[in-house]
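To: structure subgroup
Subject: Chain for Friday's discussion

All,

I'm putting the inputs and outputs inline so they're searchable in the archive.
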Amino acid sequence: MNHTSIKRSRNIDKKPILFLLDKDTDLKELGIEAASQSFIKEKIKQKQNLIHLTQEGRQIFVAHVELGDEAYKTAENFRLAGSKTCHAANASKLSEIAIQNASSVENAHLLAAEGMALSNYQFLKYKHKPEEEANSLKNILLLSSEANKAEVDDLQNVVDGVYHARTLVNEPLNFLTAPQLAKEMQKLGKKAGFKVTVFDKKRIEKENMQGLLAVNLGSIDHPSFTISEWKPKKPKNKQPIVLVGKGVVFDTGGLSLKPTSNSMDFMKCDMSGAATVMGAMYSIAKNKLPLHVIALLPATDNRPGLNAYVPGDIIKMRDGLRVEVLNTDAEGRMIMADALSYAKNYDPELVIDFATLTGSAMRAIGPFASALMSKASREKTQKMLDAGYASFERLVELPLWEEYGELVKSDIGDIKNVGGPTAGAITAGKFLENFTDYPWMHLDIAPTAWNFKNMGYRLKNGTGVGVRLLVEFLKNY
């Protein structure tokens, strides 16, 4: 994983620079010569929103940013301006670039730095000559007079959390097995200062996590169940907030085998929920959020080998419910059910889970939002929706009406692990609801966890979606 540093600087004279402008900016205040001002004005008239010029050997970028009709749209426009500048800076082989806010938006420099840093991520671990493809940009500089240390440090820690999440999603199964995923969480715990406990297969069996064990039956690799805890001295919450992340490190579909093309070929991303929680725990601890937070990561791969579970099997789950398995490719909910059941041990104030749970969510809302289903209070649910807009990791709320529960009732057992051809994202949520007895939010990130092309600073392959959303939510909790 590469690293992009966001730093404060007292003096940015003569350094490559990005000026952030809006329609009200007076170009005379930028210290740019008159001829360059005329050039910039002409380019703005031509609707060019990123202008690159050289003045006395200094590389200058000018981003003319439109102010949206809502604050969250304006914020996103500044992130995208940073993203576009990142690509231009790398094309010019710059190692650093400063940002100066000449717009009317108070935190525009931080937003642009965020978009720039997120766009500068690369995963080159498996390249034969990574140095030949590495981005030149290493440092983003912000004027000390415009950015205080705390907000720069917080931003750096969130960006680093996204980087960690993306890297985990991008890792292949021949490195990132379920036991290795647990080791990666231990590494993050050491870096960020939170406690990590790992259950091996024997302890998982002792805990009677039959959903996780059933999915693991087809694999030669053991499952893992990782518990992480961040508990500051005086947390604001008396009961913990519990995060749960789906850790299917690779999903073949099991005996309900997926087709390879445009399906199984990117299923290393099926642990994106775990990656989100891992990246978020890193950022939460590094930013020392004053909240008691626990994370649970059930992990395994899903294969059709050995004594793999089959359609028609009845699995007696950890809490006693009997699940009729009708599709072994609906495995994520099986392992998540055990984690949601285990979360009851903590008497949680709120449980939030992240999972690439259904293709149905993708078909319903496309790649521009994740699906949210909630049994939490209306106030907390609205705060999560608001965090989605603030981070531009937007959410579409789907209902958990009682009628949908009828679709997962089983003739043979208590419930079945698929609800039929309609409302697949919702029936998956209703399945999980059976294992909760506390305020709970379920986020199906299947639409947003993996990109097939660059979308601004949301780069191709693993996106790290959910880290920024979750930190934003908890910051304002």
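Points worth raising on Friday:
Residues 51 and 62 are 5 Å apart (CA to CA).
DSSP finds 14 helices and 20 strands in the chain.

D.
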